[in-house]
Structure formats: C-alpha cells, structure tokens
Amino acid sequence: MKNVTDSLKTLISCRAAGKSLPTLTLVLLWCASASGVGLRDPNQDPDGIARGNAFVATADNPSAIYYNPAGITQLEGNNARVNLYMISANTDYRANGVQAHTDSSFQPVPSLYYVYAPTNLPLAFGLGVYTPFGLSLDWGKNTPFTSLAEKGQILYVDINPVVAWRVNDKLSLAIGPDINYSTAQLDRGIYGVPGGQFHFSGNGTGFGFNAGARWQPIDQVAFGVNYHSASQMTYKGNSGTRPTPPLPGPSSTQATAQFPQFVAGGISYRPTKNWNLEADIDWTDWDTLNTVVFRGTSVGNVPFVFNYKSSFMYEFGVTRQLGKGYYVSTGYIYSENSSPNKNFNPIVPDSVLHLGSVGFGHHGHRWDWTAAYHFAYGDRDVTGNVQFGTAETANGHYHTFNNAFDLAATFKF
C-alpha cells in the first residue's frame, strides 16, 4: 500500500501533476469553444457568429448585451431572444504511430437575452444569461496521456443585467454587473497505478462587470468597444482517488482561479443601406492565469502551472440585405494560440485556428430569426512538453476541426 500511495503522491504533489488538474477544472461544459484563445467562448449569437463575431460596432439585436451592451439603445419596446448553439469539438492526436481522438458528439449551449427600451426615455435595460468561457473535451481512457487528460466538464453561467444610456443621437454608453456561477468535474488517470483515477467536483461563484460604448458619427460608419472585467472564481468541493482502498479517500478541496478580462473594438462601414462590413480586434488577458493552487487534497496543497499568454482574435464580417427582411452574412476569424508548448495539456488543445462562417436570417414585424454555421480548423505540433512525476507527455501532432450550428429567434412586443 505504501508503494501505491507514494506513486499517487509523486503524481499529484507539488508540481507532479503539472498543468492537468487546473486545466481540467477550468474546462467548461455547456459551451464547447471553437476558439483558440484559451478557454474563451465568443460565440454567443448566430448574427455575430455568421459575421465572424465582428459585431461590436453593429450590435443591433438583444445579444448586444454580450457583444456591446451600448447597442441595445437601437432597439424599441420589448425584445426577448432565445438562442441554441450546437457544437461538435473534434481534435485528433498522433505521435509515433499512436492515434487518439476526442468525442465529437454535438453539445447544446443555450443562451437568453431580454431588452426593454422605452420610447419616452433615453435608457434601455437588458438581461443576458450566457456562457462567456468554455471548452469540454473527452479523450477517453485509451490514450498515451491518460494521467494528463481524460475528461473535464464545467457549467459556467454569466447572469448579466445592463443599463444603456443614449447620450445623444450618435453616442450610447452602457454598464452592468456580471454574476457568475460555475460547477466543475474532472476525471484523469494516475500514472503508475493501473486502473487508478483522480476525481474532482466542486462549484463556485464570481463577480465582475461588462461595459460598452457605441458611436455612430454618420449613417455609414459606427465604432464600438466592449469590456468584460476579470472574475475570480473559487471552486469548493471534494477530490479523491479510485479505487478506495488502497488509494486515499475523498477530501474537502478548493481552488481559486482568475478568469481574464477581455476587450473588443471594431468599426462598421455601410456603403449603402444593403451592405454592412465590419472588422474587430478582440484581446484576452490570459497573462493573469499563471498558477492555481488546489488546497486540501489528500496529499496537501497542490500548485499547478498554466503560464498562458495573452492573445488576439482578428474578426471580419459582412451582411447583405436581400429585400423583404431577408439577409445573408459571412465571416472569418484568425484566432491566436494562448498555451505554450511546455505547459500544453491535451484537455485544452489550444492552437492557432482559422474559423469560417455563414448565416441567413429574417427581420419581421413581431419575429426575427437567424441560423448560422461555422467551422474551425488548425494544426499544432507540440514539442518540449514537460510533465513532472510521469513518463507521459503531451508531445505530438494535434489536428482540430470543429463544426457548430446556431439558431436564434427574437419576439418583439
């Protein structure tokens, strides 16, 4: 029993587990990200997605609560929008003749938005419920890196009330609090312990704020900027090992993680009433995510290293009005990598990604609807990966190809 326990301690004490535990803990279920910017999920509405998320200066439907809340002053009366995003997150691995792949089943990601814009006030009020971060992957148990990554799941929900002020006919400002709730679960193998598994489950809350501004000096040109503050999340729950005995039983565990601030800015140009072209830049401050310490595991406090790097998404989109309320959109995103090779973990196969999208929709008197599709692909060769306490590494070639569909409808009353 002592040899088994010593193997476990070697695996998960101090730096032994490297990056795998917090990486899994921050993996987000409900919103499997198609983005390569760490754990961000910027895909919150089909109008935005179809335009490559170049929507911060347009922001003309209720999902503006996420993209740029200042945009809700363009709406009138009551607007309730329901959105369902379905994504298949698919990554393949190969190295030295060994192959592995993630579960590519489609995962549902719902979101809700409501806006009330009274005609007799220069104010608009909104409430959004959405998931601003996310990735959920399941590699299974038959990989060469089971002690690094098997499966991670998190539910992360942001409840975001906002108020927007139309300063004048050209400028609008907005702000509102972010109330975040998250539950986390993870499973991973234990190197040197056949059939052994480490498990963690917990939940936490965090707070922040969301602010935006939109300026349209002339009919043809609009500028937008949106800022989401950082949010600190403390997960409280239990960790343990399987089977027990001979491995240690469950223990109360908690860890505090910093979800980063992010900011987006863009310009929309409408050469005619039938065309809208937009270009945005979106930056995420991943430099704040360095080390996360899990306190109270069966072997004491366990620090883990991320060493993520801040990164950008470059977004381009265009919408063409077809007449009778119908329109079509297309877009492209170039998404930078956030995870260095040394600290890379397969449960978050971050890489440079190229994303393409297309969408079709209709504006009606009482109902609006939009449908969109997008894909993401990228290749990455990981070398020099270091995982302390285990002979397994994440070195190898990773190929990502994600598919996602999004459908939303707005009821206006």
Explain the overall architecture.
The chain is mainly β and 413 residues long. The protein has one domain: Outer membrane protein transport protein (OMPP1/FadL/TodX) (Porin, Beta Barrel). 6% of the residues lie in helices and 55% in strands. It is built from 4 helices and 21 strands. It has a 14-stranded antiparallel β-barrel with strand order 1-4-5-7-8-9-10-13-14-17-18-19-20-21. Strand 9 and strand 10 form a beta hairpin. It is elongated and about 70 Å long.
Helix/strand/pairing category? mainly beta
Strand content: over 45%
Query: Helix amount, in percent?
Result: under 10%
Rg, alpha carbons: 22 Å
Mean pLDDT: 87
Q: Would you identify the CATH architecture?
A: Beta Barrel
* Strand tally: 21
The rough form would be described as: elongated
Task: Kindly report the spatial arrangement of strands forming the biggest sheet.
Answer: 1-4-5-7-8-9-10-13-14-17-18-19-20-21
Secondary-structure element string: HHHHEEEEEEEEEEEEEEEEEEEEE
Largest sheet: 14 strands, antiparallel, barrel
CATH superfamily: Outer membrane protein transport protein (OMPP1/FadL/TodX)
**How many domain modules?**
1
Cα end-to-end separation:
68 Å
- The CATH C-level class name: Mainly Beta
Low-confidence stretches: 1-35
The number of helical segments is 4
Could you please say which CATH topology applies here?
Porin
